[in-house]
Design brief:
Layout lengths: L12 H47 L3 E6 L4 E4 L1 H11 L18 H12 L4 E8 L4 E12 L5 E10 L1 H27 L1 H16 L5 H30 L14
Antiparallel strand pairs: 1-2, 1-5, 3-4, 4-5
Helix pairs in contact: 4-6, 5-6
């Protein structure tokens, strides 16, 4: 900071103090401008990061819910809000208690897992919950939510619909059970009539014409028994599959 004149002059003590004061003000303004520029840059980065995180959070099909230590809603995504509104007719709001919309069938277990989360213990479960118009299999995780200082401020609950995967697993289990029963019938129930038929054919080859009539009757009975066992196998397979379709119908869920 300087003072310009047409010729050299001496400054009074008052003028010197004023220049010193103005110099300090100028430096403060420069430092303030630099600080504002840094803060603005940091704010823009934080805002862009928040937008990206929120876009991912809101576009997820998983229901996300952040709960404080008093069992009240801190934050949630659109998937959860839409599901609760469509299923229960309740509009979720920040600060709302979970008792207003939590599934009553699952409430005791939910609260137990919530308390574990507050103690810093994450929990993962899979469970079928029943609603008025449908049942849904959920993959649910409970994780402690931390503040910047490391303290636990609540619990993050995330629920994903796994109905397709569960239906596929049930089809596979039904197929395995049906194949197990087929193997059992093949090794135990079908052996006797097949052995009878083989023995009767051998007798027919060594018996004269006068004894064939009786052997043919026995052979017919053994064939009917074998046919009945085959029908039993098919009935057992169909009963094991029920509504799960036939062998080969179980297509894996799309990822």
């Amino acid at each position: 900071l300087c003072v310009i004149d047409t010729k050299a002059r001496l400054l009074s003590e008052y003028q010197k103090r004023m220049l010193e004061f103005l110099r300090g003000q100028a430096m403060n303004l420069l430092e303030f401008e630099a600080s504002v520029s840094i803060l603005k840059t940091q704010y823009m980065k934080a805002r862009d990061s928040e937008i990206s995180i929120r876009a991912f959070f809101e576009s997820s099909s998983t229901c996300h819910l952040l709960i404080d230590s008093d069992f009240k809603v801190i934050h949630f995504n659109r998937a959860l809000a839409d599901f609760v509104l469509d299923t229960l007719g309740v509009e979720v709001r920040p600060g709302q208690r979970l008792n207003d919309f939590i599934n009553r069938e699952y409430a005791p277990d939910f609260k137990a897992n919530f308390r574990r989360g507050l103690q810093g213990e994450p929990t993962t479960i899979e469970r079928e919950l029943h609603y008025s118009d449908r049942s849904i299999w959920w993959h649910i995780t409970y994780e402690p939510a931390f503040a910047p200082d490391g303290s636990i401020i609540g619990v993050s609950c995330n629920a994903t619909d796994i109905n397709d995967r569960k239906r596929y697993e049930q089809k596979i289990l039904a197929q395995n059970e049906a194949l197990r029963k087929v193997a059992f019938f093949q090794s135990h129930e079908l052996r006797r009539p097949v052995a009878s038929i083989i023995g009767l054919v051998g007798l027919m080859q060594s018996t004269g014409p006068e004894g064939l009539g009786e052997l043919v009757g026995l052979l017919n009975s053994a064939a009917k028994e074998l046919d009945g066992k085959i029908h039993d196998v098919m009935d057992s397979v169909n009963a094991a599959y029920g509504q799960h379709g036939r062998i080969g119908d179980a297509d894996p869920p799309r990822s």
